[in-house]
Amino acid sequence: MAVDFRGHPMFPSTGFNAPTRFEADIYDCEVWGRVPADIEGNFYRMQCDFQYRPPENEWPTGFNGDGHVSRFHFRDGNVNFRARYVKTARLLAERAAHRRLYGVYRNHYTDDPGVKNIDRSAANTHMYWHGGKLLTLKEDALPWAIDPHTLETEGVWDFHGKYKATSMSAHPKIDAQTGEMIAYGYQAKGDLTDDIASYIIGKDGRVAHEVWFKAPYVGIMHDIAITKKYILFPVVARTTSDERLKKGEPMWEWNGDLPTMVGVLPRDGSARDVRWFRGPARNTLHFLNAVDLPDGRIVMDLPTSSGERDPSQIRRWTFDMRSRTKDTFDEEVISTANGVLARMDDRYLGCDYRYCYVGNRDPSLPYDQARGGNMGGRVTNQYLRVDVRNPKGEPGKYFAGPVQSLQECAFVPRKGSRGEGDGYLMGIASNYESLTSDLVIVDAQRLEEGAIATVKLPFRLRSGTHVNWYPANELPPFRAG
To answer: Are 196 and 233 in contact (CB under 8 A)?
Structure first.
């Protein structure tokens, strides 16, 4: 049966977020402005795309599409673009059948019986360079490695056979001071299990430390945070059950009656050292940073909302590790920025820091509906630089324009810079008028001055999941053939 997306509730007949379904190479991209000479490296971007029509009741987040990686390669002021699908076992099986074989999000009951023993991973959420591998990640399976230059798929990666969990989340953390990757899996012994597996992986890509422990309930654990001393594991009140899956529904549903639970594990600790802290139900997936305070407390900053559909804010959770009896965390709002994807200068991850960079929708800024169409308020029209040490101060602001919407940005350090925030922001801007995508480059210390350079693509990219930047000196040289 030929592919036909018409009438699917996730894909309006005309719209920016319809499946793109192509791979591409562009040599010497069109650039408006001038790319700074000190930008040399690779901006990687992931999107969930759909080769085949999903079930009608698919989770509307779109997180069950096929992994599609883009690479913008910067050298000598020039930019090359490449986009490839991650050729997972799942995608190849569906291509062989010419149809969708996997059901709704993380529900094996809805899969075609013929793929029971084929890896479900779509490798569609994030990508990290570590231990000589560019890993594409999806939280219900092991990573798939791809070539950092060609983006061709290399295969499943299990860290030399020493990673024993059945899954690895898409949000490991790289400690810039030690080079270690702190990774984890939840539902780590299979769907609906309450097992969590924590791993510290040396910069050589080999497992150095492994801890297994139990979650207080089976809830989503999409991200973690680290400090110099601890790993923080939030369990969020988006939960599931075997009964729900047998009804044919996507895995997750919101349950505001459940608390947020945060497990705190010393980085060199064992299962008996985990402490659980309780707080009110909060809807959050991504975390910004965490820091050890001199007095023994931990603070963790993150975008979060009070309910399933409430506006997001950047809040600070504080955990008192000095007390053996206090099992709740404190919360305060540090910014009303309403974006859900906040980034920082990753060289300061787990350390005392000052700035975060987050998308924001400011309804007072102009949006030209006649040119861009009715987006129903779903426009991220700013990047903000928020000073987390002085949250009442005025943030730096970059306005994308009257028909653009911004996706997640990455911080790109200026070559040779040592001070926090000395560098650039890069992120995709969706142009709803032309139905094309741009990569904008903004000075992170002078957002108000606008884009320094804009890399123009002659087509659109769907809304992405995540991005990362890796300078040229961190990757191996390209070897043709």
So the answer is: yes
Looking up tokens 């741009």 gives 438
Alpha helical stretches, state H, 84-139: 89-97
Alpha helices in 347-389 (DSSP H): 369-372
Burial label for 339, CB within 10 Å (0-12, 13-18, 19+), is buried
CA 272 to centroid of chain Cα atoms = 30
Q: Give the C-alpha separation, 98 to 85, whole Å.
A: 16
Token digits of residue 420 = 């926090």
What is the Cα–Cα distance from 124 to 48, expressed in whole angstroms?
A: 5
Residues contacting residue 376 through CB under 8 Å, at least 6 positions apart: none
* Residue pLDDT, tens place only, 437-462: 999 999 999 999 999 999 999 999 99
First to last CA, the chain: 37
Q: What are the φ/ψ torsions at residue 447 (nearest 5 degrees)?
A: -60, -35
pLDDT tens digit sequence for 148-181: 999 999 999 999 999 999 999 999 999 999 999 9
b vs e for 72-85, b when ≥16 Cβ sit within 10 Å of the residue's Cβ? Answer: bbbeeeebebbbbb
Q: What is the pLDDT of residues 251-287, one digit of tens each?
A: 999 999 999 999 999 999 999 999 999 999 999 999 9
> Which positions ≥6 away from 109 have C-beta within 8 Å?
103, 245, 246, 248
Tokens read off for 266 = 């010393």
The count of other CB atoms within 10 Å of the CB of residue 396 is 23
Sheet strand arrangement including 66-75: 24-26, 78-85, 66-75, 41-49, 464-471
Say which residue the tokens 């295969």 belong to.
155
Q: What is the dihedral sign for C-alpha 376, 7, 70, 200? A: positive
> Distance between CA atoms of 108 and 187, rounded to whole angstroms?
14
Q: What distance in Å separates the CA atoms of residue 138 and residue 166, rounded to the nearest whole number?
A: 12
